[in-house]
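To: structure subgroup
Subject: Chain for Friday's discussion

All,

I'm putting the inputs and outputs inline so they're searchable in the archive.
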Amino acid sequence: MFYEVRVLNPQGQIQEILNADQLSRKYWEKFYKEESNMGFKAQNNARLFRKMNKKKN
């Protein structure tokens, strides 16, 4: 659950208000983007691990 967020400038005045829908959308976009990047790295790491094991044997 997300709550409305108020972004203040250094003088303490409201600069921007982000509602729950905007925060939720930003969160899930970032989540899926990072997940897709992580999956690619995990696949590459698995390949490297297999290659290292073959060399040891």
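Points worth raising on Friday:
The two ends are 51 Å apart (CA to CA).
The longest helix spans residues 20-56.

D.
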